Amino acid sequence: MEDIFDFVNPIDFRYYGRNEKLKESLGKYFSENARIKYQAKVELALVKSLAKRKMCSQTAVDETKKAIEKITAKEVYTEEDKIKHDIRALVNCIRNYVSEDSKRFIHLGLTSNDVINTADSLRFKEATFEILLPELKKRNLEENKMNFSEVANELRKKNGKEFLAKHMFDLIKKSDSENFVLSGLRSPEDVNFLKSKVKDFILIEVRASKHVRFHRRSNMDPVRYHDFFKRDEQDLKEKGLAYVLQMTDAVIHNNTLNLKDLEKETVQVIKLLVNQ
Q: 101 with 60: CB under 8 angstroms?
């Protein structure tokens, strides 16, 4: 029987390792077994897409589906030890279970990051819909940003102010992607933790007037005018957003930019900061 106190990651032994129900629910999305299973799902989705376009047979799809049900994290790690590449190890393991004709369609045209980022997006999305949203309904809370924030605040109170940053950092470490964008940092504890752990960490404030932000937010997340500004004050005073704003490396003014222009502006600012 495993001893959780032999684990290195505090998330495993302090935050949920002793809660079997929580461990089981989160493990389906955030464990190493889950990470590999979700990446395998991406490989299967590719083969399905090729079959839909008549580029491979349904047999290849069926074989790939059976293959990803068989592979284990242990198997993939053993292969990675030999070839020193995690995604290639996953691909090799899947190919071991399919016919010679089907092997060529596994990972066809994909990069490692295509698999990693798509799998991460899928598991985060499913965790939100299958864990977080049901929890909000269980508490009779509406599915909006304010209530998401309340649940996050409870996690911080229970597990420490750096809990969410630590969790995000753990997810970053498990990915092979070199660059990450984190949105919505409001706690100086989160920022300080990430600065201490992430090389070339850059903090950018995207600034817009209250009225512009209210208009944009109300289109995505219906909220009353009074509640919106009340949440603003809570972010500034209770979460420490005022201190975070003093820690930024750059400011982008966003009263008139659309998403495409904002993305371009952000890339330019990051390039300037990195090359300083």
A: yes
* Fold observed for domain 164-274: Rossmann fold (3.40.50)
Q: What angle do CA 191, 196, 132 make, to 5 degrees?
A: 45
CB-based burial of residue 65 (10 Å sphere; 0-12 exposed, 13-18 middle, 19+ buried)?
A: middle
Contact 197, 169 (CB under 8 A): yes
Cβ neighbours around 163 below 10 Å, total = 22
Residue 8 has a pLDDT of 60
Q: In 10 A of CB 117, how many CB atoms?
A: 15
Write out pLDDT tens, residues 145-172: 556 666 666 766 776 777 777 877 877 7
Overall average pLDDT of the 73-86 stretch = 95
Map out the domains of the chain as residue ranges. Answer: 32-114, 164-274
Residue 250, H or E segment: strand 250-253
What is the mean predicted confidence (pLDDT) over 117-145? 78
For residue 253, list its beta bridge partners: 207
DSSP letter at 265?
H
- Confidence category of residue 127, pLDDT binned at 50, 70, 90: confident
Nearest CA-CA partner of 198 in 219, 229, 177, 221: 177
Question: Is the confidence at residue 250, as pLDDT, over 80?
Answer: yes
More confident residue, 43 or 205: 43
Give the separation between CA 205 and CA 247, rounded to whole angstroms.
9
What three-state secondary structure class fits 55?
A: coil
CATH code at 32-114: 1.10.275.10
Asked if residues 202 and 270 have their Cβ atoms less than 8 Å apart, the reply is yes
**How far is it between the farthest Cα atoms of the chain?**
64
Instruction: Record the tokens describing residue 154, joined without a space.
Output: 């409870």
* Predicted TM-score (pTM) above 0.85: no
